[in-house]
Design goal:
Structural class: alpha/beta
Number of strands: 15
Largest sheet: 6 strands, antiparallel
Strand content: 15-25%
Strand order of the largest sheet: 2-1-4-5-6-7
Radius of gyration: 44 Å
Shape: elongated
């Protein structure tokens, strides 16, 4: 239930703080006073788009805040918990929104930044707004279908049908495209398979290219390596005059001299290390030389292997050649995505599966619509009779059509006056009649809704007199199960409210300012008298107003 609404610098509101009660609350005021500002503010707080023009002239920022009691809305509490947006009190939710003159907007749920999508998702559980032009929208086929499906409890099934329809059409398009390009598909599969076969036969290992290049360098320069190693061994150890001999002679001479001066010992220690490393280097070179040999046959084999790899890589424009294994993997993936040789079969099967899913859910939707068409028509007709439409009957015509995103039938709301045949509403009813029929439908569908707060923005347009009083009583009855907010220009409807707000405007230094005040009993008499008698309020109109309030 809506608990409070606070506005600052919004449109023509300077500052506004309202608290709401259960039952029917009515808003009245002169034309242009800003009666719809409260509903516009609620819309913004529940996720509607904002623009800079909503910031009051002469100010930099508008601020809006609203508080709801959700103690009887476990679904809303669960949604907040899942989104990690629960406040200090799990049974209350606070929504806030700011707008600036640059058109930037920020939204908050329980003090945490939120997206407009989150506001909308939560708002759909909290408030149901019936705008001024709801009766005009009722002439649209999509509105009629949505309203009826909601009554039939078929909205979720209808959404599923729409999803299956889109899936079916996508599958059909893919199959049609594949059929048109079957030759190209087959050529692409053959090309990929040829490349895969050729590279697979090459059997290139992940690190083989690099290893082959290293081996090729060794084999190609084997003679130079042999000569160089042998020359080094001669210099270090094998020649008559060699490093090991020189080092040994120097060491022995210094050892003799160290007997005369111990300060030579550190140098001897270093030379001992050098001698050991030189000896190890000589041993390592001998081992290397033992395995080093000229191998023209192996060199020829390596060069042939390198050439085969290089030619294959160049053929498919792959550089460097060691990327061939990755290319093979990529081609294999592409071939699998085309379904190999079973591509068309796979796509055709996908079409059949998507069509079966659509037909199953569409049949379920048709059954729900057939089941609830008569009960819905009966309920609306019953609500229409006290609205000066006693001789009229409401029907729901379900016409079978080709499969589509909305199911297997069109939904058409029709009216029959007297003994005449039923005809589509847009062709037979007047504006006033349409407004009353819309109200009857809204009362029925709102009564089924689990949303706790219902808002009606001048849904009583085009009616008056006794019918207006009946409309007021209908809204008051609806207020027994829901919290109802209604903007009205009819005194008969206003008199039915349990809470009455008067909207007015005046001029200030900053321009036009709108005010909203909760009326007491005396204030209600004055306001309803104004609505009855216009600018000149007499004692007679006051008595009529008091009588009207007393009859409720």
């Amino acid at each position: 239930m809506l608990l409070s609404l606070n506005l600052r610098n919004f449109v023509i509101v300077d500052k506004l703080a309202l608290e709401f009660a259960s039952g029917l609350s009515v808003f009245t005021g002169e034309t242009g006073a800003g009666k719809s500002i409260v509903i516009d503010a609620l819309g913004l707080l529940l996720g509607d788009r904002a623009d800079a023009g909503m910031v009051r002239h002469g100010t930099d920022k508008a601020e809006l805040a609203v508080e709801f009691d959700i103690s009887r809305l476990p679904a809303a509490q669960a949604w907040l918990a899942e989104a990690e947006l629960t406040g200090d009190d799990a049974e209350v939710v606070n929504l806030r929104r700011t707008l600036d003159i640059q058109g930037k907007s920020k939204a908050f749920i329980n003090g945490t930044a939120a997206t407009l999508a989150q506001l909308k998702n939560l708002g759909e559980m909290l408030v149901d707004i019936h705008g001024q032009h709801a009766h005009q929208l009722l002439l649209r086929p999509e509105t009629q279908r949505a309203v009826f499906d909601a009554f039939a409890g078929a909205s979720d099934v209808a959404a599923t049908v729409a999803g299956h329809w889109r899936g079916w059409q996508r599958a059909e398009e893919e199959f049609a495209a594949a059929s048109r390009n079957a030759a190209a598909f087959e050529a692409e599969r053959e090309r990929l398979q040829w490349q895969i076969n050729e590279v697979s036969e090459l059997a290139l290992g992940d690190s083989e290219w690099e290893e082959l290049q290293g081996e090729h360098r060794r084999l190609q320069h084997a003679a130079s390596l042999i000569d160089g190693v042998q020359s080094a061994l001669g210099t270090l150890s094998d020649d008559d005059e060699n490093c090991q001999g020189w080092l040994g002679s120097a060491t022995r001479r210094l050892q003799e001299l160290a007997g005369y001066d111990e300060q030579l010992n550190p140098s001897l220690d270093l030379l001992a290390g050098v001698e050991a490393q030189l000896s190890e280097a000589v041993s390592e070179l001998r081992r290397y030389a033992d395995h080093l040999e000229l191998d023209p046959q192996r060199l020829e084999e390596v060069e042939a292997r390198l050439d085969a790899i290089w030619r294959t890589a160049r053929k498919y424009r792959i550089e460097p050649p060691d990327r061939l294994p990755q290319a093979l993997q990529d081609w294999t993936t592409q071939l699998e995505s085309l379904g190999g040789g079973e591509g068309m079969v796979r796509l055709e099967k996908a079409v059949a599966i998507a069509r079966a899913a659509y037909e199953k859910t569409a049949a379920q939707l048709s059954a729900l619509r057939q089941k609830h068409a008569a009960p819905f028509a009966k309920a609306v007709t019953a609500q229409m009779k006290p609205l000066a439409l006693a001789d009229s009957a409401f029907t729901v015509a379900l016409t079978t059509v080709a499969a589509g995103g909305h199911g297997l039938e069109d939904v058409d709301f029709q009216i029959a006056h007297g003994e005449a045949d039923a005809r589509p509403m847009g062709k037979i009813v007047s504006g006033g009649e349409l407004s009353r029929i819309s109200l009857a439908i809204q009362v029925i569908t709102s009564g089924l809704s689990g949303v706790p707060t219902l808002v009606f923005d001048e849904v009583d347009v085009g009616i008056g007199g006794r019918v207006a009083e009946i409309v007021g009583r209908m809204l008051a009855d609806l207020g027994k199960a829901h919290q109802v907010l209604c903007i009205t220009h009819l005194p008969q409807v206003a008199a039915c409210g349990q809470q009455h707000f008067q909207v007015s405007k005046d001029k200030s230094n900053g321009g036009i300012v709108s005010h909203v005040a909760a009326l007491d009993d005396a204030g209600r008499v004055e306001e309803i008298a104004r609505m009855l008698g216009g600018v000149e309020i007499t004692e007679t109109t006051r008595r009529h107003a008091a009588e009207l309030l007393g009859h409720v």
